[in-house]
C-alpha cells in the first residue's frame, strides 16, 4: 500500500482505473470538464497494476473502480465523487489540492 500512497501523493488528483470501466471514463471526463488533468493509472495496462489492485483490496477498496485520491487522500469511487460534485464540495476540494485554480 505504500506504493499506492506514494503514487497518490505525487499529483493533486490520482485515479486508479481500468480501461474497460465505464464509470472510470465518466469520472475522468468529469475531472476534465472541471479543467483538472488527473493522473490516471490504468491498472490493466501498467506494469505492477495487479499488485496495486491487490494493495487497494487489502485496504478495503476491492473491485470498485475508479479509486480516486485528491490531495493525497483517498476519496473513494464514482459514488463518492458524484456525491461531492452534486453537493457542490468537489470543486473546493480540488482547489485545496491545487488541481483547480478558478
TrEMBL record:
The protein's name in its UniProt record: Glutaredoxin domain-containing protein
Listed GO CC annotations: cytoplasm
Signal sequence coordinates: none
Primary localization: cytoplasm
Keywords per UniProt: Cytoplasm, Redox-active center
PANTHER family: GLUTAREDOXIN (PTHR10168)
PROSITE patterns the UniProt entry points to: GLUTAREDOXIN_2
Domain Glutaredoxin intervals: 13-75
Pfam families reported in the protein's UniProt record: Glutaredoxin
CDD domains: GRX_GRXh_1_2_like
Subcellular location field: Cytoplasm
Superkingdom of this protein's organism: Eukaryota
Family membership noted in the UniProt record: Belongs to the glutaredoxin family. CC-type subfamily.
Amino acid at each position: 500500500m505504500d506504493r499506492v500512497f506514494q503514487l497518490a501523493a505525487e499529483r493533486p488528483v490520482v485515479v486508479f482505473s481500468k480501461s474497460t470501466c465505464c464509470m472510470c471514463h465518466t469520472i475522468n471526463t468529469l475531472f476534465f470538464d472541471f479543467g483538472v488533468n488527473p493522473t490516471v493509472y490504468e491498472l490493466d495496462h501498467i506494469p505492477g497494476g495487479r499488485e496495486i489492485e491487490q494493495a487497494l483490496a487489502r485496504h478495503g477498496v476491492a473491485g470498485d473502480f475508479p479509486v480516486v485520491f485528491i490531495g493525497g487522500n483517498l476519496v473513494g469511487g464514482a459514488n463518492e465523487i458524484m456525491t461531492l460534485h452534486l453537493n457542490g464540495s468537489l470543486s473546493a476540494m480540488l482547489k485545496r489540492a491545487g488541481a483547480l485554480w478558478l
